[in-house]
Design brief:
By secondary structure, this protein is an all-alpha fold. The chain is built from ten helices and no strands. Helix 3 packs parallel to helix 6 and helix 6 runs antiparallel to helix 8. The radius of gyration is 26 Å and the shape is elongated.
């Protein structure tokens, strides 16, 4: 398990990452149950708008029966319970993987020769052990959950919209390639900045660990100004990368809003033409 981030960055080979995940022997059963529960939660969430649509179209006090209210409440309860359980199981799945990664990394660090410690700063190694695995944990426990539930929601929503009005649905789907065309380059820039941020964080952690663990030696040799300069440089670099990340995020929000507003105008215009 080599700690060569540059090689991973240049190749961008996700197969190595997936192979590493498989080596942790993640529990498959909780993952499958979580996906099934996510499907149930999404289906219940998509059924509620359909039910309320029919209820609004024929709304009257006499048309509201106990059976309709029971079905609506059952849909809400099923969505809440299955959604909560799926999120917990996916987080359990992610925590299990991260624990396996940290266990393998810790075993590898203890088995490495002394020359490795001579060539690498202690703080950087600690950062790889804690911060980098924390990023993987966030990817699996947070983004993986949103990814699967989002995919299921998108597929279900598109199917329902196609059944209701396929022409309007195709018009709305034109915003997808336009958004991908604009957001694709921004996503690549954000990835590059995030990798640089992780590297700089590791370096800064290494400086902190080295200085604070040898604070008596630093004071005895009057090296406070030199160490302050090194720490200040790390803080400045982190600030610079943070500003780069903020610039990209500032572009993503307005672009998405612009595409949505343009789509809304087109849909309203198209709907007006169809009414005429």
């Amino acid at each position: 398990m080599k700690m060569n981030r540059k090689n991973v960055q240049t190749t961008g080979d996700w197969r190595q990452f997936l192979q590493l995940i498989k080596q942790t022997k993640p529990p498959v059963l909780p993952m499958c149950v979580a996906l099934i529960l996510s499907l149930v939660a999404t289906a219940a969430g998509l059924a509620v708008p359909l039910f309320t649509k029919n209820l609004v179209n024929s709304f009257s006090l006499s048309s509201i029966g106990s059976g309709q209210i029971t079905i609506l409440i059952a849909a809400f309860i099923a969505q809440a319970i299955s959604g909560g359980l799926s999120i917990y199981l996916l987080n359990h799945f992610g925590q299990k993987i991260v624990a396996g990664l940290r266990d393998r990394l810790w075993k590898k660090l203890l088995a490495l020769p002394v020359s490795y410690s001579d060539d690498h700063q202690t703080g950087e190694t600690i950062s790889r052990m804690t911060n980098d695995t924390g990023v993987v944990k966030g990817l699996i426990t947070d983004h993986l959950t949103n990814f699967f539930t989002g995919i299921i929601s998108i597929i279900g929503s598109v199917v329902i919209l196609l059944a209701l009005d396929w022409r309007m649905t195709l018009l709305m789907l034109t915003a997808v390639p336009l958004s991908m065309l604009i957001l694709g380059p921004l996503g690549k820039r954000m990835h590059t900045i995030s990798v640089q941020m992780q590297d700089e964080t590791a370096k800064f952690t290494a400086i902190l660990t080295q200085v604070l663990s040898e604070i008596r030696l630093v004071k005895a040799s009057n090296a406070e100004p030199l160490e302050y300069k090194r720490g200040k440089q790390g803080i400045t670099n982190l600030f610079r990368f943070g500003l780069k990340e903020a610039k990209v995020q500032a572009q993503i929000g307005p672009v998405i809003m612009f595409v949505l507003m343009m789509l809304l105008v087109v849909i309203i215009g198209y709907g007006g033409m169809r009414v005429r």
